[in-house]
UniProtKB/TrEMBL annotation:
Protein name: histidine kinase
Catalytic function, reaction form: ATP + protein L-histidine = ADP + protein N-phospho-L-histidine
Originating organism: Sediminivirga luteola
Span list, region Disordered: 1-39
Lineage: Bacteria, Bacillati, Actinomycetota, Actinomycetes, Micrococcales
Database matches in SMART domains: HATPase_c (SM00387)
């Protein structure tokens, strides 16, 4: 293939690099208006390069063959040698140029050297050296391509020296031949650089696509974790309250039927609240506008949360210190869920007779909620749990750039303290 032809092939093969990279399955690329399949390999000849290579080699050989007839009067051996050398210079080009260009150049250079040693003058078939040098420069390492160009120039100097001494060739014409060799080498090197840059762009596009898929997977995992945490907080708290109330109602059903009836009313109310919150959450997942506009629980609902815990049989006190009205809704929801989960853990693990204190403090640049109890703490002998409560609280607070501390109190019991800066993301 000529330098011009190969450059066009490279350009046609890579014309789509400014467009978004297709997926691995070769799906149609997306344009600004519609989808259409894109020919990634260029023109028909670019998809079948051996055809153009064969046409070039056959044309050069056909043009050179009649010129070898002038050696026929000098003997059959010299004539046969001229024909054979022309064939050696032309035949490897379409067969090996794309796979082993160095072999093509080596065979052509060896044949040209034998031609000069045999006293056969320059023939049009020697132009195959230029094509082979271009292929080497376009497909091999720069150092190897430079060495190949130097070898061709050395042969050229050796071949034209007799013509210069005899005056059959002017220095200017010899310089044109040398410039042609250098031009082929330079064009090939530029084609190689262009191809490497295009491949680098494609690899970068593939890397960006892999990174995009990874980020999407991470975002999906984080979203699943957030949904699981929200469902855990809703279901765990309300079911815990329902279980405690149901146990109390069952124990009082015969001795105190009125109190048992009131307790079952609380069970029904708690169940309705759980269903309401679950419907709101499912509405958010489905994109329901009514669910999006529905207010989420926050610090204003802490009183109702504490009252529900009292009705479930847990003595709880709530203390507020400072004005929490300017707290963003996201931070308020996080602190509400922390308090809800902490009170659920008190009912599960603190044991009978335990008391809890909820303290909300909003001063300076941070807001803090503290839930403490005087029970036995989180004992292994307590009711079974899934072990995600404290981890979920910590993740929820960390999402707001806050910190959470949970552990036994020095005087007995357990304590959970969540602190979130007011300037944090919500």
């Amino acid at each position: 293939m000529t330098p011009v032809g190969d450059a066009r092939a490279v350009g046609s093969q890579n014309v789509s690099t400014t467009r978004p990279a297709p997926d691995a399955a070769g799906a149609p690329e997306r344009s600004g208006h519609a989808e259409r399949p894109v020919n990634r390999r260029g023109t028909w000849t670019a998809r079948r390069p051996w055809i153009l290579d064969s046409v070039i080699a056959a044309s050069v050989f056909a043009y050179t063959l009649p010129l070898t007839l002038e050696y026929r009067p000098q003997g059959a051996v010299l004539f046969s040698a001229a024909v054979l050398l022309c064939l050696l210079m032309c035949l490897p080009y379409p067969l090996l140029r794309r796979r082993t260009p160095l072999t093509v150049l080596g065979v052509a250079l060896g044949a040209s050297l034998l031609q000069s040693l045999a006293g056969i003058g320059l023939l049009p078939a020697n132009i195959m050296l230029v094509f082979a040098l271009y292929a080497v420069a376009a497909r091999c390492r720069p150092a190897l391509a430079a060495a190949a160009a130097a070898a061709v120039l050395l042969w050229l100097g050796f071949a034209v020296a007799p013509f210069l001494r005899a005056g059959h060739l002017s220095p200017g014409e010899a310089a044109v031949l040398a410039v042609t060799v250098l031009w082929a080498w330079t064009w090939g090197a530029l084609s190689r650089v262009r191809r490497e840059r295009i491949e680098a762009v494609r690899e970068r596009a593939r890397q960006l696509e892999r990174e995009r898929e990874t980020l999407a997977a991470i975002a999906a995992a984080e979203e699943r974790e957030r949904i699981a945490r929200e469902i855990h907080d809703i279901v765990s708290h309300n079911l815990s309250v329902i279980v405690v109330l149901a146990d109390g109602a069952s124990a009082k059903a015969l001795s105190e039927p009125e109190r048992a009836r009131d307790t079952m009313v609380q069970v029904r109310r708690t169940g309705h609240e759980a269903l309401t919150e679950m419907r709101r959450l499912l509405g958010l997942l489905r994109g329901d506008e009514d669910a999006v506009r529905a207010p989420q629980p926050g610090l204003a609902q802490l009183g109702a949360l504490v009252d529900a815990s009292r009705r479930a049989g847990l003595p709880v006190t709530l203390t507020r210190d400072g004005d929490a009205s300017p707290v963003p809704p996201g931070i308020g929801l996080a602190l509400y869920r922390v308090t809800q989960e902490a009170l659920t853990n008190v009912r599960r693990h603190a044991g009978p007779g335990a008391r809890a204190e909820v303290t909300l403090c909003c001063r300076g640049e941070a807001i803090e909620v503290r839930i403490a109890d005087d029970g036995r703490g989180m004992s292994r002998s307590g009711p079974p749990g899934d072990g995600h409560g404290i981890a979920g609280m910590r993740e929820r607070v960390a999402a707001c750039d806050g910190t959470l501390r949970a552990g036994p109190r020095p005087g007995g019991g357990f304590e959970v303290v969540a602190s979130i800066p007011l300037g944090a993301r919500s």
